[in-house]
Specification:
Layout (H helix, E strand, L loop, with lengths): L1 E5 L6 H4 L1 E4 L9 E9 L3 H8 L9 E2 L4 E8 L11 E4 L2 E2 L5 H4 L10 E2 L14 E5 L3 E3 L6 H21 L7 E4 L5 H12 L3 E4 L4 H5 L1
Parallel strand pairs: 11-12
Antiparallel strand pairs: 1-2, 1-4, 3-5, 3-9, 5-6, 6-10, 7-8
Helix pairs in contact: 4-5
Bound molecules: zinc ion (ZN).
Length: 210
């Protein structure tokens, strides 16, 4: 399969990211294989190429947010079927520690961001991506692959901030800093979903107009 691979860090992605032919991954029993239809680009994907703030496993495939179609199932998988339209949930956590079992998997000491801290050659910018069943969610037919891939990481981040931590309530006023960022744009929509009044900031007029 084709994959976007880099083998060294550089400030300029075009210098180091190359399309390579690599083996289609072999599945673990709890994993599914996804034919990737769309992927989004997050800041951690750029940080990985830069090698800042952390070095990443090499050779590296970036990509935390993907959507696509399930094409193969590990033998323990029960909740998904071939042909399902799915989106990735890129937080890999242990699921058995006290943080994970109390619903705070983001605070799991073993947490890894898929496509950023995983590897070698384990991320979403490839034709066939593999993930544990629990890190894959089905998407409705009326949601495009592009929309699904765009919302995964920023959507979870925004939801966690506004709903889980800030516990927004209808009628409140919510200030969204950086309203045109990925997290900000989803945050505006979540706050409106909760019937809040939204005030958003942005860095220039073009962003303000948007
Ligand atoms: Zn854990």
């Amino acid at each position: 399969m084709k994959a976007a691979v880099f083998r060294e860090h550089d400030k300029d992605p075009e210098k180091v990211v190359k399309i390579e032919d690599i083996e289609v991954p072999k599945l673990k029993p709890d994993e599914v294989l996804i034919k990737v239809e769309a992927a989004s680009y997050n800041y951690n994907d750029l940080w990985a190429i830069w090698g800042r703030p952390i070095k990443v496993p090499m050779p590296h495939i970036s990509g935390t947010d993907i959507s696509g179609i399930v094409v193969e199932l590990g033998e323990q998988v029960t909740s998904l079927a071939k042909g399902d339209r799915v989106v990735s949930h890129g937080n890999l956590s242990c699921r058995i520690c006290s943080m994970c079992t109390s619903g705070r998997e983001y605070d799991c000491e073993k947490r890894l961001v898929w496509g950023f801290q995983t590897g070698p050659l384990w991320g979403g910018y490839c034709q066939y991506a593999h993930l544990p069943e629990v890190n894959v969610a089905k998407i409705n037919d009326n949601i495009s692959f592009e929309d699904a891939a765009a919302i995964s990481m920023v959507g979870m981040t925004s939801w966690h901030m506004l709903v889980d931590r800030a516990r927004i309530k209808p009628g409140q006023t919510v200030l969204i800093m950086g309203g045109t960022s990925g997290v900000g744009m989803v945050g505006i929509q979540i706050a409106k979903l909760y019937d809040c009044t939204v005030i958003a900031s942005a860095g220039n007029q073009q962003k303000m107009d948007k």
